[in-house]
């Protein structure tokens, strides 16, 4: 008898193992193609090894030095040695670029000093006076402090920069003056747009879903078609459609002009309103679909029962209806909000400079300045925001229907 | 007027207002697309109505242009390949998750859903960076693999939804009749969950076809897909070849829509839109 039990347990284990083997491919695939690369990108936000690998002697000579104390003389010799060891400018480029991010002018300083040093005969003899004679910047402690701070291997420079903070040379964290701050406004833009569009999606999606849920089967079918057709149409098509509707020579302006309602074309494009209108159009199905599916399950008799017990319409709505559809509302808001945080193409085509949020900044630092560290730091902020919102909604609602994939 | 009559008059007014809102919102949802598509048939490059002369010249421009032709071909190749890969990976995973009832089920789901939650810009530059390191940036394989990763989660979700309503006893019956697991899956499970598998594949196709951001980073000039080509040309709204391309993508959307509706009608288990289902 025990043999049968053992056989059964063994065959169950085997079945479980076979089942696991079916899940492993997708996990490995996503790990290699998606999750691994994302983690690798995020790790670049704290990675700071370029300077130490290009200027190893200098990094070592400065390791013990503290701001406010005299610079060790060994640092000058180390710098001359490092610069002369760099056989081509390309060897120096990553480090020079990194130092330039935290102190503008460093790239030129390193490159010209290297070129001039190559021409000299024996600069090792008196490195300090030679360096200072090549550029007065070598006499400034800030130059050296910048190198010391960038000596890695990890840094908080990019993450601080991404929230408009900086580390002073004495190590304390300070706020970047508002005139130079560039990132907080973009982060604010991203959140303001996401909030606005989510709110709009509730304001318009709620009554629409309610209409659908209370309509006859035929009408509800037509409404579902109207929601799903744009939903399945490529986003790019919808964005261009709004561009053509709202443009200066577009459909709406043509209509307004030819009907004599306005004298000149209105500027409807490249502003916040255009972005909000298009984003609502793209994301409102994510609000309507989950709302509709919960509204279908709430019998209207509940509201009538509340009314018969003397509840005014609003109280009945708030105390009886709203709690029952809350999971759908939460799921819809989550889906709309999270996706709005990540939008990139809509503001790029329909928005003005004021509408460019975090994703646009990330793309900018990758495409235009190749500042991967900063792009990674901004990605950390965006991703943490997304997961924070996700976690917040899941915790607040504790609803299983919400936790995954009501797409 | 009695109070009752007043209340009903009020509610009638409310309902009328709600109805008008419903119609207006339907116009908002469909209007822009329906206004945009017919412009591709306009003989002159004017963005307004009425269309003066009907013409197919933008379509012939589209077909004549090697750039657009390549983009069209790229979109078809990439979306089809990614759909096949994502469907295979997704169906296997959904079936394994359903069979296994693992302890770490929810953690596995979180991992599988990552590409749907991570903003596409971050996914795009991450994959670009990693593919570039091994010299695979600007290749078809990289783009197809990236789209597979983005599309696989929706297949898992869709197929899991059908499997949740699949009766596991059928597999025991098949086993008792001597079918090995593979045969049982092929002859019993697969036919029953087919509508879910197909709608998952349609969604996967739609995701790949819809993507601009990832393709913008991963595709070189030779891999440009239709949406990327449209993005590149979007600064020139008067090139109605873009409208012609949009019209073609719209037709694909209509086809997918009809296809999904047919699937839903054929099998009540199909989770095309859970909402659409619960209407019955």
Automatic annotation (TrEMBL), chain A:
Organism of derivation: Oryzicola mucosus
A GO biological process held by the record: transmembrane transport
Keywords, sorted A to Z: Cell membrane, Membrane, Transmembrane, Transmembrane helix, Transport
Protein origin, superkingdom: Bacteria
Membrane-spanning ranges: 20-39, 191-213, 225-245, 274-294, 328-350, 370-393
A family per Pfam: BPD_transp_1
GO CC aspect terms: plasma membrane
Protein name (record): ABC transporter permease
Cited InterPro entries: MetI-like, MetI-like_sf
Family: Belongs to the binding-protein-dependent transport system permease family. CysTW subfamily.
Membrane-protein topology: Multi-pass membrane protein
Compartments reported by the entry: Cell membrane
Keyword Transport attached: yes
SUPFAM superfamilies: MetI-like
Main location, first listed in the record: membrane
Domain ABC transmembrane type-1: 187-393
TrEMBL record, chain B:
GO cellular component: plasma membrane
Domain ABC transmembrane type-1: start-end pairs: 72-261
Record's keyword annotation contains Cell membrane: yes
Topology of the protein relative to the lipid bilayer: Multi-pass membrane protein
Alphabetized SUPFAM superfamilies for the sequence: MetI-like
Principal localisation: membrane
Keywords noted in UniProt: Cell inner membrane, Cell membrane, Membrane, Transmembrane, Transmembrane helix, Transport
Family statement drawn from the similarity comment of this UniProt entry: Belongs to the binding-protein-dependent transport system permease family.
Protein's name in the database: ABC transporter permease
């Amino acid at each position: 008898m025990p043999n049968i039990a053992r056989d059964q347990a063994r065959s169950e284990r085997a079945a479980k193992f076979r089942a696991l083997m079916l899940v492993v491919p997708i996990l490995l695939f996503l790990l290699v193609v998606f999750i691994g690369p994302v983690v690798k990108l995020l790790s670049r936000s704290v990675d700071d090894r370029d300077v130490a690998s290009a200027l190893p002697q200098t990094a070592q000579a400065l390791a013990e030095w503290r701001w406010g104390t005299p610079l060790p003389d060994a640092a000058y010799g180390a710098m001359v040695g490092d610069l002369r060891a760099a056989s081509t400018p390309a060897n120096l480029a990553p480090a020079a670029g990194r130092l330039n991010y935290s102190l503008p002018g460093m790239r030129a300083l390193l490159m010209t000093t290297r070129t001039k040093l190559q021409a000299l005969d024996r600069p090792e003899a008196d490195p300090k006076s030679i360096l200072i004679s090549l550029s007065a910047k070598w006499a400034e402690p800030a130059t050296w402090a910048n190198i010391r701070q960038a000596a890695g291997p990890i840094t908080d420079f990019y993450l601080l920069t991404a929230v408009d903070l900086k580390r002073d040379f004495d190590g304390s964290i300070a706020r970047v003056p508002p005139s130079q701050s560039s990132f907080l406004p973009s982060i604010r833009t991203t959140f303001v747009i996401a909030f606005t569009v989510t709110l709009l999606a509730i304001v318009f999606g709620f009554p629409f879903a309610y209409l659908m849920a209370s309509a006859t089967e035929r009408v509800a079918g037509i409404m579902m078609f109207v929601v799903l057709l744009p939903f399945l149409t490529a986003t790019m098509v919808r964005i261009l459609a709004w561009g053509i509707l709202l443009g200066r020579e577009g459909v709406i302006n043509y209509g307004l002009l030819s009907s004599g309602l306005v004298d000149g074309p209105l500027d409807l494009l490249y502003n916040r309103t255009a972005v909000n209108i298009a984003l609502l159009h793209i994301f409102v199905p994510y609000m309507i679909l989950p709302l509709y599916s919960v509204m279908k399950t709430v019998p209207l008799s509940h509201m009538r029962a509340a009314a018969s017990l003397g509840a005014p319409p609003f109280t009945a709505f708030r105390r009886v209806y709203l709690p029952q559809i809350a999971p759908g509302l939460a799921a819809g808001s989550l889906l709309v909000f999270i996706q709005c945080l990540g939008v990139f193409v809509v503001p790029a085509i329909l928005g003005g400079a004021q509408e460019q949020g975090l994703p646009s900044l990330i793309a900018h630092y990758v495409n235009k300045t190749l500042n991967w560290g900063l792009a990674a730091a901004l990605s950390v902020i965006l991703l943490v925001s997304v997961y924070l919102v996700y976690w917040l909604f899941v915790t607040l609602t504790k609803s299983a229907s919400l936790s995954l994939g009501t797409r | 007027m009695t109070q009752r009559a007043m209340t009903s008059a009020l509610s009638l007014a409310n309902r009328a207002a709600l109805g008008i809102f419903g119609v207006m919102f339907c116009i908002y949802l469909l209007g822009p697309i329906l206004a945009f598509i017919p412009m591709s048939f306009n003989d002159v490059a004017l963005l307004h109505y009425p269309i003066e002369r009907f013409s197919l010249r933008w379509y012939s421009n589209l077909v004549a242009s090697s750039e657009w032709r390549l983009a069209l071909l790229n979109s078809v190749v990439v979306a089809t390949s990614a759909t096949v890969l994502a469907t295979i990976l997704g169906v296997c995973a959904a079936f394994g998750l359903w069979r296994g009832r693992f302890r770490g089920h929810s953690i596995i789901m979180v991992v599988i859903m990552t590409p749907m939650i991570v903003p596409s810009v971050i996914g795009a530059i991450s994959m670009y960076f990693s593919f570039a390191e091994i010299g695979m940036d600007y290749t078809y394989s990289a783009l197809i693999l990236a789209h597979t990763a983005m599309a696989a989660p929706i297949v898992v979700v869709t197929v899991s939804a059908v499997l949740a309503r699949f009766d596991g006893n059928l597999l025991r019956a098949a086993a008792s009749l001597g079918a090995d697991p593979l045969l049982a899956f092929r002859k019993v499970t697969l036919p029953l969950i087919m509508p879910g598998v197909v709608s998952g594949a349609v969604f996967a196709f739609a995701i790949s076809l819809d993507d601009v951001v990832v393709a913008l980073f991963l595709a070189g000039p030779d891999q440009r897909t239709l949406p990327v080509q449209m993005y590149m040309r979007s600064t020139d709204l008067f090139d109605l070849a873009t409208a012609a391309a949009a019209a073609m993508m719209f037709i694909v959307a209509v086809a997918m829509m009809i296809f999904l509706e047919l699937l839903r009608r054929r099998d009540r288990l199909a989770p095309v839109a859970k909402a659409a289902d619960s209407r019955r």
